[in-house]
Amino acid sequence: MKLSGRGRGCCVVAGSRDRGPPPRSPFVHQLRFSPLQKAKIAFMTLTLFPIRLFFAAFMMLLAWPFAFIASMGSDEQELEKPLSWWRRIVDVLLKAIMRMMWLAGGFHWINVKGRRALPAEAAILTVAPHSSYFDAIPVTMTFASIVMKAESKDIPVWGTLIKYIRPVFVSRSDQDSRRKTVEEIKRRAQSGKWPQIMIFPEGTCTNRSCLITFKPGAFIPGVPVQPVVLRYPNKLDTITWTWQGPGALEILWLTLCQFHNSVEIEFLPVYIPSEEERKNPVLYANNVRHVMAQALGVSVTDYTFEDCQLALAEGQLRLPPDTCLLEFAKLVRSLGLKPETLEDDLDKYAVRAMKMKEEVDLKEFSAYLEFPVSPILESMFALFDENEEGIIDVREFVIALSVVCKPSKTLETIQLAFQLYQSENGTITEEDLAHILKTAMGVSQINVTQLFRAVDEEEKGAITYNDFSSFAELYPHFAEDYLYVDQMGTESGLETSSLSAPNGICTDFSPESAEDKNKPLQKKLN
Fold first, then answer.
1. What 8-state DSSP symbol labels residue 28?
2. Run of H or E including 13
3. What are the DSSP calls for 39-54, one per residue?
4. 293 close to 213: Cβ distance less than 8 angstroms
5. pLDDT in the model for residue 253
6. Which DSSP helix (H) or strand (E) runs through 199?
7. Per-residue pLDDT tens over the stretch 343-372
8. Region entry Disordered: which residue ranges (predicted)?
9. Mean pLDDT in the chain?
10. Using one digit for the tens of pLDDT, what is the confidence trace for 336-345?
């Protein structure tokens, strides 16, 4: 399985309708340091880092009593009124204290471009790309409300500062919380009395190489929004906090060890939705994303937060950064299918694959899936057309679909693959195992010789699923010992961030029932 020329349809360069090569995975961030950079970090760790950390913590503690006093006794009716004179003073003091906190972190000046719209002009600010908790800088500059998990208000010190900016809280324990959140945002946006709401529509952090699919929650109210783009033009990117890469504490340490950190905040013109966009929040979100991508000069990609979850699934086969399976999952959803609900159909696809010949052309693949030939289906076909001969092994499709449907159930996928590849006596060869594992990991090449020899203790030249299952039970980390050395290597020298919830400062609140199909960009109707 590989990204063939015809199968590289995961991104569109802003300003162009043509499909192009995909960007690097937006959920991966790798750092490499030269010997000189390592020496500088070591020196700063012993000198400037502890001073900065202490000063930044002191500024946060200093802000707490002001935020606490200003938040006491504030009911909803009072919050909708203009700020009293003393609250205006507190507002100015808190902004000054927060600015000193960022100054302590090396953000000596913040470059602001454009004009921030008045709340009457745009009640919602959509910010992208979302790549770090340092994206809180525009929040502390504007004190706009944000959408936060309800649990955040219980965090000591930080929770008090959050409550001061009057956020919209999303409760995990309330199944109806997302719908209520959208209704509250709509109410605030249409009232004209509340502060602006700042929303990060990507829903998770990326490496800023592209803009992933925007969640529609910010666009459901159908009111004008002001797009805000963030840039961190630093020679060494210690800011980015993604799912695969340095963890939160490591990012903090490395950033505070840089003498200067640059950030640019650009307020784009207010985007007023057409009538069609008001009725279709997915279209509205896509068109705003396109405008922001043009301003940033980056691609837009159909990758979503769900793809991020696939990449970080807790299974024995952890997907490498350059896996094709993220694109495959995107193409599956583009066909109108949801991987989360396809698990019951896997057996059907597997049985049909075993009954038909192994290699099929595009027309036969279309009949196998019961989908008409389309550009999306052609892109999916091209992913498996390794030699660009116009034929694919349909068994590879079944394996890839199994990984996407149940990414954390590695052995179930391998068991299904054994059923597809095994001979009459229930065994597979080393070549078969290579086909299985390279498809399950979404890579074009893989070396399984050492793994196969370890499983084939009797040197029969063939193994059964029971052999493999017994080996995996004895050596649950077999992939790290035998596969990742070649596939993932030690390029970054960094551990994967083990997060069980979306990273970033803005949680996703889009209703589960919201339409999740990606729609093509359409010209705005005025």
1. B
2. strand 11-13
3. HHHHHHHHTHHHHHHH
4. no
5. 97
6. strand 197-199
7. 777 888 888 888 887 789 999 999 998 899
8. 495-526
9. 82
10. 777 666 777 7
Pairing of strands 210-211, 225-231: unpaired
Q: Of 504, 502, 501, 514, which is closest to residue 216 (Cα–Cα)?
A: 514
- If you count DSSP H runs as helices and E runs as strands, how many of each does the chain have, helices first? 22, 13
pLDDT recorded at residue 522: 40
Which is it for strands 124-128 and 225-231: parallel, antiparallel or unpaired? Answer: parallel
Q: pLDDT digit string (tens) for 58-89?
A: 999 999 999 888 877 555 555 555 567 788 88
- CA dist., res. 73 & res. 369, Å (int): 61
CA distance 313 to 256: 31
Query: How far apart are the C-alpha atoms of 303 and 325, rounded to whole Å?
Result: 11
d(C-alpha 417, C-alpha 1), whole Å: 15
Q: What's the pLDDT at 313?
A: 65
Q: How far apart are CA 221 and CA 240, in angstroms?
A: 30
Neighbours of 205 (CB within 10 A): 29
Q: Which two tokens stand for residue 334?
A: 């583009």
- How many CB atoms sit inside 10 A of residue 425's CB? 7
Could you tell me the two tokens for 183? Answer: 């209704």
Mean pLDDT of 281-288: 95
> Are the CB atoms for 216 and 513 separated by under 8 Å?
no
Closest CA to 330 of 210, 200, 212: 212
Task: Give the per-residue pLDDT at 475.
Answer: 85
Is the bond into 129 cis (omega within 30 degrees of 0)?
Answer: yes
Query: For residue 267, which phi and psi values (nearest 5 degrees)?
Result: -90, 115
pLDDT at site 340: 64
Please enumerate in sequence order all residues whose Cβ is within 8 A of that of 5, keeping only pairs 6 or more positions apart, or say none: 382, 388
**Rounded CA gap, 409 and 395, in Å?**
18
Contacts of 439 (CB under 8 A, 6+ apart): 1, 396, 399, 400, 417
What per-residue confidence (pLDDT) applies to 211?
A: 94
d(CA 215, CA 509): 8
H or E element, residue 471: helix 465-474
pLDDT for 509: 56
In our burial notation (b when 16+ CB lie closer than 10 A, e otherwise), range 396-405 reads bbbbbbbbbb
Q: What is the separation, in whole angstroms, between the first and last Cα of the chain? A: 45
Place of tokens 């963890």: 247
